[in-house]
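User:
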Amino acid sequence: MEIILVILLTVPAVLSDSHSLRYYYTGVSVPLPGIPEFSIIGYLDDQLIDMYSSDLKRLIPVAAWMKECEDPEYWERTTQVCKRNEALFRHEVKTVMKRFNHTEGLHIVQVMMSCELRDDGGGGSGHQQYRYDGREYMFFDTQTETYIPTMRGAEITTQRWNSLDVRINERAKNFLENTCINRLKKFIKYGKKDLERRVRPRVKVTGRVSGDVTKLHCQVYGFHPRPVDVKWMIGEDEVHSYETTHVLPNPDGTYQIRVSTEVTPKDGDRYSCYVDHSSLEEPLLVQWEPPQASHLTVVITVVSIVLILTPVIAGVILYTRKQNYLAADTSDVSSDL
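Assistant: Predicted structure:
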């Protein structure tokens, strides 16, 4: 599932002045627990709207407004289309494996189909991309209306699909320029409230000191929509981030990301996490405070020292008193003699 998520997240976020409808078709060569053999996932911008899998055997709405957007006949009709695609994809996975000289093992074939529409109604561009184990091996060029191979293993397939007898390229063009765009316009209308939702990010900065090196983490979470800019700063300069997670979804529909860096702080250095998001009037700048001994820590330390020294001091006092007593007792005995 980690591999599939990485492939899904390699597609760049849509610009804020446009909307997109994306469908991901994913097939695996070997069924695994928790990973369906075949699945279709639909996204409107960054929002998951519907899904089908070989486990579910049905196309189901995920976004609440999708239930109002389409009637029951749509879900039944489109479910049958998904089932036909599932059968075709099983064959396609085997074919692609053969093209790349693979006969066994876990392999993933994924197709991404998408269309975009600007807020002013212009655009209407479409994309169709094919990936094998995370690498693009061919794509559909909407300008020339042909499939273009990007790896040698895809040459046979593109020649066949571009032929006049098969006409797969014509069906692809029709879906991207007509079916996809019409759906996108309809979904934007029904999903407008969710698309315009803005949730401010929450930010937590932490640091772990190990010798001279300090590892800083900036956790940004609970924000919507997905596009966000997070980076570490020292004063007004950006700090190189050695580790950045993908923007990951939360169960409540918001998102999270973590950006980390390793630094060697000097006296006077001030490190801050910079966060910019469409829900903010101005970017956030959350400063990391180096760890300092708290008042409670000082009190506990003093009490501990007192507890340790008390028996020692008491022993010294008792010993001193005993020596004084013995000295006084000896003096009394000598005078009686």
